[in-house]
Amino acid sequence: MKKADPQGSTNECDREESSRIRSLAHDINNSLMSCTGALQSLLRNTEKSSSNYKRLKLLLSGISDASELVKQLYDTTRGLNQKLVNLSAITEEACQFFKESLRKEVSLHFKLEAGICVNANSVQLKRVILNLLVNAEQAISESGKITLELSSHEEENRAELVITDTGCGMSEETLFKIDKGAYSTKGTGLIRGQGLTNVRKILESHDATLHITSKEGIGSSFSLDFPLVSLLTRKPETTIISENANILLVDPDESLHSSLSPFLQQAEINITSFASFELAYDWYAQQSDKIALIFLYGKSDCENILEWFPKFQSIDPTSPVIISSPHCNKTLTSATGQKGLHCFSWPLNFPETTKMITDILGSEQHPQS
What we know:
Blueprint: H1 6-44, H2 51-74, E1 83-86, H3 87-99, E2 106-112, E3 116-120, H4 122-138, E4 144-153, E5 158-165, H5 172-180, H6 195-205, E6 209-215, E7 219-227, E8 230-231, E9 237-238, E10 246-250, H7 257-266, E11 270-274, H8 277-287, E12 293-297, H9 303-315, E13 321-324, H10 329-333, E14 341-343, H11 350-365
Parallel strand pairs: 2-4, 10-11, 10-12, 12-13, 13-14
Antiparallel strand pairs: 1-3, 3-8, 4-5, 5-7, 6-7, 9-11
């Protein structure tokens, strides 16, 4: 009689459990997509000046992050893709999201140096920051304060993010046990088993470090060090003429701004330009209420334009988008069936382009009934 293979049974159970998790994650992600659609519909019908507008955008961003995390459960080949990201913008978004659920007895103060760039996975970084902020709040039993500071140290090629709270604090013995990896200071919160362990793992995958200092009865401080890639010392090119007609131009080759800008100035249209889709997206996520139109321009590659268009539109579905590329007129034109998307054929005639932009802005400000 053939003996049962316990290892084979274990592997089969693991495969079934893995399949169940992937299936469940897929269903959760579909539900999140439905929520995204509903929120985008609400956003289109909400005034930009309304306080609910920014709240809806924060919800959309949170759902997008949750969807990305869920995808990692059912797509085992999906790595933690890292790219150049604006840590300042990511941190500010995490703070704004956290403030929505922060109890009134606890205050949050944050001071962020602008334009700090690191190589990272933005979703995972927000996960780390939010976890540490939640832990800080839970360490405060009654009233208190949480302080977050982000700064760069160019001479040491590093960026430092420090989160400090006025909570219960921890003894040296507790700190020692936490550094060893599996210690809980309370029944809920971050430091309860794998919470802080996961934070450390994420930071290690980014070549970042975590240092904790604390004193009982006074509070705790969590210091995160990241390798600094660059600082956005050169501000986006901008000539402020009319705050009511701001355009965001994404021009990787930096070949369009200098040619188009004089015509837009004559039409009293302000233009803000970036040479990077990633950095423009991060900036737009924080400043979309100041932008009336997005212009995505790709001199040689239209694939990036088609990839980034829905990402920009997910932040604010109401803003019109212009796309243009000299080598991809046909491809881009086929995509213009989407609402709010305009394709400008190349080569661009700058006076005509300016007039078309003015017409689009005018129709947005005075829509036909």
